[in-house]
Specification:
By secondary structure, the chain is an alpha/beta fold. Helices cover 44% and strands 15% of the residues.
Length: 306
Amino acid sequence: MDLSRRIVLGTALGLTLATAGPLSANAQQPASADRDPGEPLDVRTPDGVRLSARRYGDPAHPEILLIHGLGQSRLSWELQTGSALARRFHIVTFDLRGHGDSDKPENASAYGDPARWADDLKAVIDAAGLHRPTLVGWSLGGLVIGHYVARHGAANIAGANLVNAVTRLSPDLLSPTSLDYAGRLASPDLSARTEAIARFLAACFARMPPAEAFARMLVFNGMVPRAVQQGVVQIGNDGLDEAFAQVPRLLVTFGARDALTQPEMSRRILALNPKARLSIYDDAGHAPFYEDPDRFNGELAAFAAG
């Protein structure tokens, strides 16, 4: 089935299901009534941006901080926060600046400075009272981790799990599809931008989510202002390679059917850090944590407990 038809059918069915009630018990997305909303955290960044954050589980347990990708939200991690992981670990999620329920500065300059993303992550760590969290960065979240370590060091983190992560903003490491969307997502034309958002979201998956879940994802993807898309392409790469080389423990997770990043985007980390380990998901796309959550949650649990 081509991409356009997948989007249309997924969205239409999702809207139908949304009015009919929660998904069946064997569907991948947890039913609305069963979602743990978590405990809200008050996070303010050095430049005054309010970030929406939640904590799950016992704060005395080992710590995991989940960082979502471009256009997404903390809700992207519901198959982690709604799983046994939240009983074994203290999990923190948050909406990146410009995403979800976090503040949305109007100027693209608020999103182009890597120091702001790094300081945002530190603000979440401080607000949650985390001591040595395992950082998990999906897509853009990997870039945020790299700039955090470049600016604040790796002494206070236990390790990092890079999930189909952007480890360097470089055209040769991104797919032609990804490069094409970079312009369309920032289009001044609402029609063009709306179509790009739907196609970009669908491109994140080799196996489409349940229809209701995809419809919900479209909502929070559509909340991201154009200024974010204009700004993120300006984020530089200074210090990233040196930063990833510093991380004490590294798990690199890669969905081999990724339509948005080239395999070298993830594989290059193995050369930068000899402690890094690569885990390939042959049947997953850009979001292996969603497409194969049982395997992902098990590997993350083993890594974070180590």
